[in-house]
Amino acid sequence: MTTTSWKPTAKEIVEKAELFTSGHRACAGCGPAIALRQVMKATRGPTIVTNATGCMEVVSTIYPYTAWKVPWIHTAFENVAANASGIEAALKAMKRKGRLAHENIDVIAFAGDGGTFDIGIQALSGAVERGHDFLYVLYDNEAYMNTGIQRSGSTPHGASTTTSPAGRVIPGKLQYKKPIADIMVAHEIPYVATASIAYWQDLLVKARRGLETEGPAFMHIFTPCPRGWRYDTSKTIEIARLGVETCIFPLWETIDGEYNLSPQSKIFALKPERKKKISGYLKMQRRFKHLFRPKFKHVIDEIQHRVDERWNRLLKRCNMTQSD
Amino acid sequence: MNKTLKGWKDIPIAGVCWKPATQYLTGDWKTFKPIHDAEKCTKCLLCPMICPDSAIKWNQTNEEIEFDYDFCKGCGICANECPADAIKMVREGGE
Amino acid sequence: MAVAQQKTLAMNGDEAVALAVKQSDVDVVAAYPITPQTIIVERLSEYVANGEVETEFVCTESEHSALTACLAASATGARTFTASASAGLALMHEILYVTSGCRAPVVMAIANRALSAPINIHCDHSDSMVERDSCWIQIYAENSQETYDSMIQSFRIAEHLQVLLPVMVCLDAFVLSHTLENVQILADETVRKFVGVRQFPLVMGHEGKEVPFKLDPNNPITMGPLDLHDYYFEHKRQQEEAMKIAPRIIKEIHEEFSRISGRKYGNGLIEAYRLEDADIATVCVGSTAGTTKTVVDHLRTKGTKAGLLRLRTFRPLPLTEIMGALENVKALAIMDRSNSFGGSGGPIYHEIRHSMYDAPTHPHIVNYIYGLGGRDMPPTTILNIYKDLQEILQTKKVKRDVQFAGVRQ
Ligand SMILES: Cc1ncc(C[n+]2csc(CCOP(=O)(O)OP(=O)(O)O)c2C)c(N)n1
Ligand code: SF4
Ligand code: SF4
Ligand code: SF4
Ligand SMILES: [Mg+2]
């Protein structure tokens, strides 16, 4: 796989037309909406977008309005990768038969964590195994937000959701987050990346790489949700940044299976003392509020332990070890 | 029946949308409003990149940052993130 | 137009489907194997492997994805085909509605098979009958020849600009799917010319102009939005309208096809067999009609005024045609190869009996649930049904309105 030389400047990007426009009805301060805007700013030409059921589908296409300036289709919750497969297959066949007006059309599939970690994983696994040429973008807000904040396979340990509520005896979700991006790497697809809306340039470059990849590319974007995570709407980017600074959501990519730590995370491998404690991150979000009760305080240590464990494992994969 | 809504013969098939979202103003959602201080602004162009609602525009002609209050929902992200402290959130109708 | 040159080949129903797809300039096939439909998928894979078609074949990881991929490909502008049966069709259930709701003209062959449990691979109609409300046109074939012919017609019906609905072509498991039969085959060019290239209607998009109804970067449209109480109902009403127009289109395309093939199946919607003066008659879909015709012939030699009505389309249900054909029948047996458990008989019975409510004269109507899980329907069983009808005709009394034919006590 070749890597893009594209390094967008802020000016170039702000001057580029909005393909995902204003007038959508996401909550104020919505992280996923920022992700969609940023990804669409990385497109390189004619593009077709398909969306799984979830917040972004709902808020962007409330009939008869649409916030999309590109051809867009939603069909169901668990099948967005199959939508992409069908679109890509159609483009291939029509091109072969001389019935396509474009030399190339990129295909992007957007889905939430529910549509990816849980109900959509079969269609996703099948589509990438078949090798369809498309970019799959997971916007991860760590729960089923559209249906009222239920837990998903992505919801972090200790988070309170409406189906993993913090009670008198249970401290929120008991399980840990599924390592979805590693699962996608295990599919041996040409490109996998994690990204954060707090680092727009890194995100855009990765999205462009995904589009330029021949074959399936997968992007996991960390997108805080003020409604479901229960924090003030102004903090979306701040929390997204903290996710990287605490190493609970490190930024990396794999090109043909080779792990590479992105600069925004590499700094914490080189200077571990800069890595922030997870408690500050948890403290900002009321979904973790109960963890600060004496009874559940140990959960914070457990989370910190698991973050460190995963971070060290990632460093090994990236051929780096934490110098401490 | 609502007279302003169209009948089944007058709308496209299959739920194809026929209005751009830019005709649906979300500006009245806000209780706080960002006020931009052009003096302090370094034109770093961070805020237009992180506004969820594309409500911060870069005016190419006069090279200025402009806020589109028709769509700004008042989340305050821009004010929270501006490195130059050039955006202040004020209560709607308060200034 | 003169009847085109044809050749006769021995093939089973599945192979007839695959051949029709090969000849119909299909862009995308996305499918998943399930007995007794598997041969279709296998033959199509061979055509692709041998470079005999330009079709893109997507061998998905499930039927849910197979139909989804067809739907999305269709929305992108492709002519698409899939095939399924039983559990596979049940797994598609959600997407059947999405496909018709998106007005995607996907064509699907169903090798009708029983639903689990217990698991069974043989014929009955439970799998497609349960999908009768999904806004798919349903054509039930009597033999492999009709399967082949119906497949070719279906692309035209589905893609017709006033219809734009998906079509299921149903063929009975094993009886048709796996049984060799002589099938008359049209030349590739003849079929290609008949199906033509897919056209698109213009729709009002969000940029204030009319644009072709497909996902095209030159004229972007949004498909499959959130549609709430203010407009969803209107979109469903549009679908009903398409179903109302469909019978005329199905008849026209059937007629046009008969001019090149020399073959007709009634008027394309129903086939009335020796019904003009019949006192007693049965109604059925699928291959059972073949056996029933020989029973009717036999009864006629004995002077019994027996007849048969075969429904070729169950959706749309050609009510006027059915009423007209059954006008003079005095005792009627409706044959259902599926059951509505806890209801009052099978689906065909429900609909025909219900529509008789408005008829000036009411025949006696009984229902036979038969052939579940591939249970044989031999001529003797059918003969007994006509005997029951004769008794009803004489006594003017119906003892039991819903019965199970061929089940052991
Ligand atoms: C088959 C099916 N099951 C359940 C639902 C209900 N449902 C719609 S969206 C959703 C959750 C979406 O969660 P996620 O993918 O994380 O997206 P988000 O809303 O958080 O953006 C659920 C459960 C559905 N639409 N379809
Ligand atoms: S619930 Fe969260 S993800 Fe959904 S629109 Fe609101 S802020 Fe965005
Ligand atoms: S973030 Fe602040 S300094 Fe940068 S462009 Fe916006 S207002 Fe100006
Ligand atoms: S307050 Fe929020 S919506 Fe308004 S301009 Fe700032 S970032 Fe955009
Ligand atoms: Mg989610």
Please tell me the overall pLDDT of chain A.
Answer: 97
Largest beta sheet of chain B: what is the strand line-up? 2-5
CATH superfamily of chain A: Thiamin diphosphate (ThDP)-binding fold, Pyr/PP domains
Mean pLDDT of chain B equals 95
The CATH top-level class label of chain A: Alpha Beta
Task: Tell me the number of strands of chain B.
Answer: 5
State the secondary-structure class of chain B: mainly beta
Rg estimate of chain B, integer Å: 18 Å
Give the % helix of chain B: under 10%
Can you give a write-up of this model?
The complex is a heterotrimer of chains A (324), B (95) and C (409). Chain A is α/β, with parallel strands linked by helices. Chain A has a single domain, classed as Rossmann fold (3-Layer(aba) Sandwich). Helix content of chain A is 38%, strand content 13%. Chain A has 13 helices and 9 strands. In chain A, helix 4 runs parallel beside helix 6. The longest helix of chain A has 21 residues. Chain A is globular and about 70 Å long. By secondary structure, chain B is mainly beta. Helices cover 9% and strands 21% of the residues of chain B. Chain B contains 2 helices and 5 strands; from the N terminus they run E-E-H-E-E-H-E. In chain B, strands 2-5 form a two-stranded antiparallel ribbon. Chain B has a two-stranded antiparallel ribbon with strand order 3-4. In chain B, a hairpin with a 4-residue loop joins strand 3 and strand 4. In chain B, 41% of the residues are buried. The model of chain B has no long low-confidence stretch (mean pLDDT 95). By secondary structure, chain C is α/β, with parallel strands linked by helices. Chain C has 2 domains: 220 residues, Rossmann fold (3-Layer(aba) Sandwich), CATH 3.40.50; 136 residues, Rossmann fold, CATH 3.40.50.920. In chain C, strand 13, helix 9 and strand 14 form a beta-alpha-beta unit. Chains in contact: A-B, A-C, B-C. At the A-C interface, strand 1, strand 2, strand 3, helix 4 and helix 6 of A face strand 3, helix 3, helix 4 and strand 11 of C. Strand 2 of chain A pairs parallel with strand 1 of chain B. The structure holds thiamine diphosphate, iron/sulfur cluster (3 copies) and magnesium ion. One iron/sulfur cluster binds next to loops of chain B. The site of one iron/sulfur cluster has 12 residues of chain A, from helix 3 and helix 9.
